[in-house]
Specification:
By secondary structure, the protein is an alpha/beta fold. It has 14 helices and 23 strands. The two termini are 40 Å apart.
Length: 481
């Protein structure tokens, strides 16, 4: 048992900010006190084991990244971050909980896939972790297995309208799964892209000699995302199943979500930092790297793809976050190295493993949106911690600084500075041979990171360990209408 006092800071929640001291006993927050309060003694600093001075800094709940893919097999390789390396990088960036995806591939049993992910993660995570369940093959066995998920603390599952032959579900399968989810209280997560049509477009582009990473974005046209988003909304409406659309990137898809929400539907959407900052023209079309030439864009190949800045998709994502037509920002962290992984698709963009590594940078990148006036300080906390906790059944334990909550706390310095990238003095702890965010400068800094009362990061050093992270058994969504 140990006690920790964070003094002098401004505690920021999703609803406001106040000067307060935070007292931690063992793994829990036990008090949030007015500065100088003598309620628990005349000199509290002398009676605790450790004091963290947060003067001039923000004290916020630890970040929750609700969309990650550690060690995900994809495209003939595997995501380069293990649960150990990925969660250590998360801690460096102020993320103290992740929700990864246990995978059932077509022809495999859900129970087998889930057991495999428990084995990968157990004893290896530096921060707390939970799972969503990917249902990659909707049949009588998987529908029956869905009935056991809530007891496992898994209250959300994911379907794919993309990737035929890998994860793809057709409309009939989606309908059946959503009916079962509505019965059980599960939240349906959807990768909304028209996969079969995308495959046709991609083959046509390849056959006409258009093989570079840029054409990944052209094949996965915004119309394919809007159409699938609308279709998912209609199926969810019919089955009365709550719907959460992952990695929204097209402004037209946001419009579909907004229209459904205006009708009072339980329809939600997340976006990711890459769709707020990066673009088809600048990143997927990049050609300046001496090593990779016109293949440099492979660094930013992900699905849904980066969208055209000229068409205003990035501005629309920020607007969606301001209006709550988009509720959350996750990373879809799925890192691959260029060497031996991304380069599998050299000469054929269809074979490039899909994914960008961002878990370390989400809190910083979103804070920069506060600096530039895109979102408020409170909305920053809401998007990165409070709503993920509410959406996925963790709120009260996670996502808030309040007595009884886990002591997952970040001290963030608005006067600090963070340089992202691979070079000297830059921030990069993910297991990758490049940074998708090379050269980004952040007008703020993660100073101290606390997970369940343990200091993981302080004074530019990592003090955590693999195995500290515990499995999170999640309750039902706390965000539904």
């Amino acid at each position: 048992m140990s006690t920790l006092l964070i003094t002098g800071g401004t505690v920021v929640s999703s609803t406001g900010r106040t000067a307060a001291d935070v007292l931690v006993d063992d793994e829990l927050i036990v008090a949030v006190l007015a500065p100088g309060s003598t309620l628990l003694g005349s000199d509290l600093t002398a009676s605790v084991d450790r004091v963290v001075d947060a003067t001039g800094k923000y004290v916020i709940p630890g970040g929750i990244d609700a969309h990650t893919h550690m060690q995900l097999p994809f495209g003939g390789t595997e995501a380069s971050d293990t649960f150990e390396t990925g969660t250590i990088a998360a801690a460096w960036g102020g993320t103290t909980s992740i929700i990864d995806f246990a995978v059932q591939t077509t022809g495999q049993r859900i129970e087998t896939g889930l057991a495999a992910w428990h084995e990968k993660a157990a004893g290896n995570c530096a921060v707390d972790y939970g799972f969503h369940q990917i249902v990659g093959g909707v049949d009588e066995h998987s529908l029956k297995a869905m009935e056991t998920l809530v007891d496992e603390g898994i209250t959300s599952y994911k379907l794919f309208m993309a990737y035929p032959g890998v994860f793809y579900s057709d409309d009939a399968q989606i309908l059946k799964a959503m009916q079962k989810a509505a019965e059980l209280g599960l939240l349906t997560m959807m990768h909304a892209e028209n996969g079969p049509a995308i495959d046709v477009l991609a083959e046509q582009l390849y056959n006409s000699g258009k093989t570079t990473p840029y054409f990944h974005g052209i094949a996965r046209a915004w119309q394919m995302e809007e159409e699938a988003t609308h279709r998912a909304i209609m199926l969810a409406d019919l089955t009365e199943s709550p719907l959460y659309v992952v990695h929204v990137s097209a402004k037209q898809a946001v419009a579909q979500l907004a229209a459904a929400r205006d009708r009072g539907k339980n329809v939600f959407g997340e976006t990711c930092p890459q769709y707020l900052y990066l673009s088809l023209e600048e990143q997927l079309g990049a050609q300046g790297d001496k090593t990779w030439g016109d293949f440099e864009g492979a660094k930013w190949v992900c699905s849904t793809p980066l969208r055209s800045r000229e068409d205003g998709h990035q501005d629309a994502m920020w607007q969606g976050l301001r209006t709550n037509d988009l509720q959350m920002v996750s990373t879809d962290h799925c890192p691959f190295c260029m060497k031996d992984q991304k380069e599998l698709g050299k000469g054929d963009f269809r074979a490039i493993p899909n994914g960008i590594g961002s878990i370390e940078h989400r809190l910083d990148l979103m804070y920069q949106g506060v600096v530039t006036g895109e979102i408020t300080l409170e909305r920053w906390v809401e998007l990165t911690s409070t709503t993920p906790a509410r959406m996925f059944g963790l709120y009260g334990t996670k996502g808030v600084i309040a007595p009884g909550a886990d002591a997952d706390i970040v001290v963030y310095d608005p006067h600090g500075h963070t340089s992202i990238g691979m070079g000297e003095g830059r921030t990069h702890h993910m297991n990758m041979d490049h940074s998708a965010w090379e050269g980004y400068e952040i007008d703020g800094h993660v100073d101290v990171v606390v997970s369940r009362g343990s200091v993981l990061v302080e004074n530019g050093e990592f003090h955590g360990r693999a195995g500290h992270g515990q499995y999170l058994r999640r309750g039902l969504s706390q965000y539904l209408v």
